[in-house]
Amino acid sequence: MSLYQEYLNEIDERKGQGLHPKPIDGAELLSEIINQIKDVNNEYREDSVKFFIYNTLPGTTSAAGVKAKFLKEIILGEATVAEITPTYAFELLSHMKGGPSIEVLLDLALGNDEAIAKQAAEVLKTQVFLYDADTARLADAFKAGNTIAKDILESYAKAEFFTELPAVAEEIKVVTYIAAEGDISTDLLSPGNQAHSRSDRELHGQCMITPAAQAEIKALQAQHPDASVMLIAEKGTMGVGSSRMSGVNNVALWTGKQASPYVPFVNIAPIVAGTNGISPIFLTTVDVTGGIGIDLKNWKKQVDANGDVVRNEAGDPVLEEVYSVATGTVLTINTKTQKLYNGDQELIDISRSLTPQKMEFIKAGGSYAIVFGKKIQTFAAQTLGVEAPTVFAPSKEISNDGQGLTAVEKIFNNNAVGSTPGKVLHAGSDVRVKVNIVGSQDTTGLMTSQELEAMAATVIAPTVDGAYQSGCHTASVWDKKAQANIPKLMKFMNDFGVITARDPKGEYHAMTDVIHKVLNDITIDEWAIIIGGDSHTRMSKGVAFGADSGTVALALATGEASMPIPESVKVTFKGEMKQHMDFRDVVHATQAQMLKQFDGENVFQGRIIEVHIGTLLADQAFTFTDWTAEMKAKASICISQDDTLIQSLEIAKSRIQIMIEKGMDNKNQVLQGLIDKANKRIEEIKSGAKPALTPDANAKYYAEVVIDLDIIEEPMIADPDVNNVDVSKRYTHDTIRDLTYYGGDKHVDLGFVGSCMVHKDDLKIVSQMLRNVEKANGKVEFKAPLVVAAPTYNIIDELKAEGDWEMLQKYSGFEFSDLLPKSTARTEYENIMYLERPGCNLCMGNQEKAEKGDTVMATSTRLFQGRVVEDRDGKKGESLLASTPVVVLSAILGRIPNIEEYKAAVEGINLTKFKPISMN
């Protein structure tokens, strides 16, 4: 059967799902289609022409290479297609973004046919996705006296690719749609259990919110054809949980506009809003697509005659509506006055949503075009020997005399690219920075590869110290979906220059370690900037930003990222941990104490948490920095002591060495280079030449939070509060309760020890608790299933060497097998302990979940609705988050323990401890 026939069969299958033909990315299929176009009598010719024009992916896909070559033949008169004139062929090339299309356009522009060269030059003037090989050709031609090359360079120097674009409309009419009340998780917009379909944009779009919501959005569009639908998180924050490019893609697919008539299902310009604004990493993703994110502030705390906040019986502030955004309300965004209006009534200033930089993103259809455009303008001006005119909004540079630097300000100043030489920058400054480490995870990796193809990138930027492609999100179940997607992803990334969890050649053992743990190990400098395709990219060395798949692609391709320097909140500690407490309890208590100190205001949201826990090694400190995603912080920085940092770097070196010994290093010896950099950093610290990073004593913070360890008396549990009468307060991560609240009788259906929140000591705690119970009762019986997933293979190897893994095996009813991985997801659980393969497992919820309606006690990061457990008729699923000992004991008892039971169970166990620096 020909590839085209297979494609027709696939089209029939998709038609049954209500889907259009899948966009073509393969050269072989498109070559068959071109042959059918050339055969004027071919029965499939008419459809073949349509597929060629409207259904072929651009960029550096192999199909794009074939398409560009055929269009070149048409332009040169070597092939004739009635439906595609040479002029139309140029138009099609103009929508192909880069890669093969740029190569063809340069061939034509620098060729001997003057008329064709001029047409090609006009198209090239609109393109920005040029790389070194492309700009070198232009520069060489200019130096050789080519007038066309000079003409193109002069246009680039003036940034006509941007200035000639249509202006942003002064008024943008929107019609509101409340997608949910309370925080909106990106799981609502792009569910984790549908991660396998993210690279198939139309198919994945079917999972956004609910079919009923999609129908309501379509109805609003029919009623208001001149307005864009604005998705709203009423009384909450939009896009919490992760950056999730697929979530923004889905919103754009349903509410945005098509980026190009020749590229299917790639939409831009979504408009989203929240009463409490947009989650920082999600807002970055909105910028990527040229969208708008608005902080509505349409509810406020009610105050009495004395100016005091009015509270309800639960002690929570009572809110009152400032203005309505009920579904179907027509509003106007005025980009000139930068205000939001209902008719003539001004509602709120939205200037933060329409900064000069954001207006550029909107005009250009996304931030990529601006990033690449600035580079092209700079290149052209330098090549011509002229000064580039000021076209783009100047980067805001804030420098406050006499003010010291926070840790993040120091890192950004150290890594800044293109800022004013010698100028010290403070929070609020717009900075382009060098990125040291990049991480791509496997459920967004295919989208990252598509983004790289779309921006015509073929090799990792040489300035990136190291990059890793994980396999952790698909570790639990090696099903047909994973088998179809993951090998293809690993080959692409491996060829691109990224260290990959799975070897495309099959020579080294698959490493399904949790991505954040690997990134934490390969970060070998606390001055590093890390970009990763997951909101839990929150390393305890350096400053790490969770990002969408596009921003990850941009970091891989350019080695850079652009963002304002965030404000910081300083977190320090006083007092002493109780003997029966675990550091996870301190993490949860930090959130509770912060909210209490600031009367319910989350001062962490959108800012850097600079946490002073320098006595903890990187593995243990990561438990705190990881959780800052749930605190809605933009990122976090761990301030470490010299000797602690040296120990952490030595551990990181040993783990990188294991990766090398497995055969994971590439031809560029990236992993060996990281070890060399770690050795250099260790020597700098030991010699005193460059001590561990610390902020200046006179640094300025948005707020300072002091956590009192003395008042943390009991384990602290993050509760989704699924039955709160105020819907907006469910699933927020802000409800932190002590153990006694549950009275020792709340039923638990399943326990889960795993995710990036745990480290080796957590697995040792499981082993020690089993020994304690065995000693007391003669055996261990579970009254609820206990699922245990070590985050990395290294941890299992270390546990085996130290005798703990044997204890876990003794009481396990299931142990994973690399030789025989599961091919189907588990749907039912017995009251046994399951030793699962290293990876995300239940925390991600994309492959396996708890049984519907279960009450789960977990060490994982997320408690969103439907993430770890879905609802069932008559009972909501709920995932409560706690420390490892609480989870293990809950599974053994089948209920949440009381404080006496808990204390007895952890007696003599080495829990993860922390002492403030002042106590040492």
List the helices and strands and how they pair.
Elements: H1 3-16, H2 27-38, H3 45-54, H4 62-75, H5 86-94, H6 100-109, H7 114-124, H8 132-143, H9 147-157, H10 160-163, E1 171-181, E2 184-185, H11 186-189, H12 201-205, H13 211-223, E3 228-234, E4 238-240, H14 245-255, E5 257-260, E6 263-268, E7 271-274, H15 280-288, E8 292-295, E9 299-301, E10 319-321, E11 330-334, E12 339-342, E13 345-349, H16 356-364, H17 367-384, H18 407-415, E14 416-417, E15 430-434, E16 437-440, H19 442-454, E17 466-469, H20 480-496, E18 499-500, H21 515-522, E19 529-532, E20 543-546, H22 549-558, E21 560-564, E22 568-574, H23 583-597, E23 608-611, H24 618-627, E24 635-638, H25 642-662, H26 670-687, E25 703-708, E26 716-718, E27 736-738, E28 750-753, H27 760-777, E29 786-789, H28 793-802, H29 804-810, E30 812-815, E31 833-836, E32 855-858, E33 878-881, H30 884-893, H31 899-906
Parallel strand pairs: 1-3, 2-4, 3-7, 7-8, 16-17, 16-19, 17-18, 19-20, 22-23, 22-25, 23-24, 28-29, 28-32, 29-31, 30-31, 32-33
Antiparallel strand pairs: 1-11, 5-6, 9-10, 11-12, 12-13, 14-15, 15-21, 26-27
